[in-house]
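Dear colleague,

Following up on Tuesday's group meeting, I ran the structure prediction for the two-component complex that the binding team flagged. I've pasted the input sequences exactly as they went in, so you can double-check that nothing got truncated or mislabelled along the way. The structure tokens for the whole assembly follow below. Feel free to forward this to whoever is handling the docking comparison.

Inputs:
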Amino acid sequence: MSEKNKARQENLFRFIDKDTIQSEKITAPRYSYWASVFRVFFRKKINIFLICVFVLLLLCAFIIPAIEPYRPYENITDAKTFNLSPQAAWNYFGGFSVKWLLGSGPMGNPIFLGIMASARTSLMLAVICAAINMTIGIIMGAVWGYSRRFDQVMLVIYNIIANVPYILLISVLVYVIGAGFWSFIFALTVTGWLGISYFFRTQVLIIRDREYSLASRCLGTPIPRMITKNILPFLTSVIVTLLATELPRYISMEVFLSYIGVGLSAEVPSLGRMIQEAQSAFMVYPWEFWPPVAIAAAITIILYVLGQNLADASDPRTHM
Amino acid sequence: MKRYMLRRILFSIFSLLVVIIAVMLLVYKLIPRSSIFQMDDVWNKKSLNDRVMYEYAQYQKFGYLDYADYTAFLKSKYEGKYGSDYTKQADFKADKDAIQDENSYLENESVKEFMALYKNKGYEPNYLTPQRSPSGKAKKGGDGYLVAVREKSVFLRLWNYLTHLITVETTADVQDPALTERYVRVEHDPYSGLFAVVGSGTTHKYLLYFDNRFPFIHQNWLHLNLGTSFTKFRGQEMTDVIHRPTGEQIKTVTQYPAKLGTDETINSAIDFHSLTYNSNPRTKTEMKQFPDQYTTYSYRLSGLSMIENSFVIGLIATFLAYLFGLPLGIQMARHKEGLGDKIGNAYIIFIMAVPSLAYIFLFATIGTTIFNLPYKFANAEIKILGYVLPTVSLALRDIGNLMKWMRRYMIDQMNSDYVKFARAEGMSEKEIYRKHISPNAMIYLVHGIPGTILGCLTGAIITERVYAVPGVGGLLTNAINGYDNGIIVGCTVFYTTLSIVSVILGDLLLARCDPRISLSSGRGGGR
């Protein structure tokens, strides 16, 4: 019996040759940083929901103005169309229409088309400004934090520029170069990167003197390689966090600057201008005031929450 | 430490100077100067050379340049020679008319003298050729003028600014030969019943005095001249603009200086402590009312000044923010991921992400409809209620911010080794939070406290505008929109000084709260 069993077991096993190529392969799944980031990011259902809302908003903001351009002065000659509530606007313009979904403004302008065109301006402004400021800010910040000599010079410059009231700087620039879309972007970015750069410099300083950086320096790693391989990967989550606060900041800033009268020029539709024009009568014509406020709030909140969650996900410690 | 502070203060003064230069360059060089005439009716009415002359006068007033007019030069020249009726003299008339002929004006002796004098001073002569209609008569506003112009350099402007920044009243201030008695002495003050420092020959009569208004002791001795307004507050200094009380007059029973001791009283809001010198001869009634030439006065007003309004609102809001924000942040960190934490986080996101304009209007709507609070500051029937909405709007924002940071720092500290040790030692959770985590988390927040308090002096621009609070928040933006150069420079100096002082105070406070931090270490504290 046992003999038979033994023979059967021997039949079950067989010798194989040693395979040197196979033994070099790592069987653990490949770790990809960004794949893990998005895996963690999409684990939260709220993020998927917010992305859907945001994509919808983006589509509306870019497609609707393309199909039906916003013409604020089309009814300027017809005083009856001024300040109509949604209900009154539908009655006046012959039944329900998407164009008059939110009533009309002080010049007979359709509020709905207005906020869509303005949302497009705000989104573009936020993305372009954030892209420029973040790029320059991070590159300069990395060098600033890394080089001690550069640090001394930059600190003096920073201390001085940070003390010039930015409202003054922006309004002078807007005044000198005009208040169009691109000059406004120039005004926001010409010193805007400095704050980001300063924040980033402090982060780089902390990492620069860590032991592994010191070891790397001892081995003779050149500075550009040190910055790109040793320091920047460590700061990915910081960069994403920064992005999360920067993007909505420009939308708020545009609203604020338009409100105090240094914003974009009148021909560029913007949320800030719409809010500013409607705020004096916001109790009387609430449909002119709250929709742009709601859109501005919605965009900023979505961008902020998404950015924060992405920043959380970009921290490798959460990739379990 | 002393050396460190000295170096720090010197560096601060240096950066303040550079900021002033930068702002002066921005304001005086970058903005096209002709923009000051955009809303000017006088400019619109003038034409040709008259308009150019008006422009020169305005440019000088706004601080762009210095100019000298040939006619004024002639006036001073011939007034010395002939006295007040110099205009009737033939040689004055000849010199005056010389510039109406563009071909021969350079041959006139006075013109040559004028040119030479101002060329030496660095002025550039500018001859405005007479504009004539075809008939040969001068057009309206087309008279010829001769001026010498000097652009103000940035350093000259800075020097003028700095030398006039602080002025002290002396007995030589009043340039009136009629005033013989000049003194500064301590006298009994009949209006307060105490003593006061009284001057004669100084601009103000009462240099140091007591009264029943906060802060009870007042002075007119030193004046801080941050900048003079040209457009909105015609000719007033910025410090006066932000410091002048507003509101209605408070009438009290008082007496004119000359009637003191008699039983003739008046019911008036005149503040006799504010008397200033008036060099015009006194009228008959003034002769009866005042014993001397100090006859110009201001009134006592019930309201606070612009800066006081802003400061009161900001300070109460800051106090409320720390009172509620810190404990709420601590509680959120203690019960992390709980319901309270989630609600708190939602609130923080709301405050962080929504444009401040939007939520201030939201608070305004809630406040006016549900709590029936007055919307506009001036419409408040009970004065104190007008302060409620602005203060609450500011406080709600600050609470959100403080909650965010307090929670963040608390959570960072909660994972520290010393907390594990404390727990291992058997301390209760309450004790750990109260005695260990909170003080350590507070260290990060301490640095911002002086900045928050001093920042209240700059006002809150949107809040004040929404509720129509007469505060200092909109001062800079209004000045920018109105090309009020003096106020722009003044505001910048004021804000920059506040920010520099608050950073230094913050560092000192930080070093005081955290014994591990030493500001004067070799690494310069900035690491």
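The radius of gyration of chain B is 31 Å.

Cheers,
M.
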